[in-house]
Design brief:
heterodimer; A: 4-stranded antiparallel beta sheet; B: mainly beta; 4-stranded antiparallel beta sheet; 11 strands
């Protein structure tokens, strides 16, 4: 069965320091994996997606994520945090053979300290 | 501009008074879905639709109805709202295929008194 676990509900980093948001997944087959960002009073916006091509995926706003099958992880990183990165981030998994099933993680709220 | 439009954005109403939240997309997407977002629970899927006249239950369908008479519209109906349906609701759409990203509306905040 599919599942996705975001290991931290809150992460705080100082502006200009690296960001790491952790996501582990469980999937029976070859998953598609996504990271979305949600700013206050807004819908979710796609940051990046992995769909069995390159394991290192680059997204918008300087974010990237690496798919590690052996660790069943898809952690989101950014080299240098900006105040505008403060938001909630969701890791999402879906299976190629189950078009209807999409699982959201519970979210990680990223706080940026000045 | 490609977008998913939800209306209303905010609604306060009373228990038992039927309401409809509309959702429309202009991207010719086959797949549409409704989610509710509650603190600490992330997004949970209420209903989804793979195409016109094809709908199915998600994880939390109780108390909700949907219809998909046209490709662009996917309204969410609460026939007899109750306070436990107070939540933030999102509509999303995407092309067919699990590797396609979803496009989200800006959300509808419902308060049921």
């Amino acid at each position: 069965a599919q599942s996705v676990t975001q290991l931290d509900s809150h992460v705080s980093v100082s502006e200009g320091t690296p960001v790491l948001l952790r996501c582990n997944y469980s999937s029976s087959y070859s998953p598609s994996l996504f990271w979305y960002v949600q700013h206050p009073n807004k819908g979710l916006q796609l940051l990046l997606k992995y769909t069995s091509a390159a394991t290192l995926v680059k997204g918008i706003n300087g974010f990237e994520a690496e798919f590690k099958k052996s660790e069943t992880s898809f952690h989101l990183t950014k080299p240098s945090a900006h105040m505008s990165d403060a938001a909630e981030y969701f890791c999402v998994v879906s299976d190629w053979n189950r078009d209807d099933k999409i699982i959201f993680g519970k979210g990680t709220r990223l706080h940026i300290l000045p | 501009e490609a977008q998913v439009t939800q209306n209303p954005r905010y609604l306060i109403t009373v228990t038992g008074k039927k309401l409809t939240v509309t959702c429309s997309q202009n991207m010719n997407h086959e797949y549409m879905s409704w989610y509710r977002q509650d603190p600490g629970l992330g997004l949970r899927q209420i209903y989804y639709s793979m195409n016109v006249e094809v709908t199915d239950k998600g994880d939390v369908p109780e108390g909700y109805k949907v219809s998909r008479k046209e490709k662009r519209n996917f309204p969410l109906i609460l026939e007899s709202p109750s306070p436990n349906q107070t939540s933030l609701y999102f509509c999303a759409s995407r092309l067919q295929g699990n590797n396609q990203p979803q496009h989200f509306g800006d959300g509808t905040r419902l308060s049921i008194l």
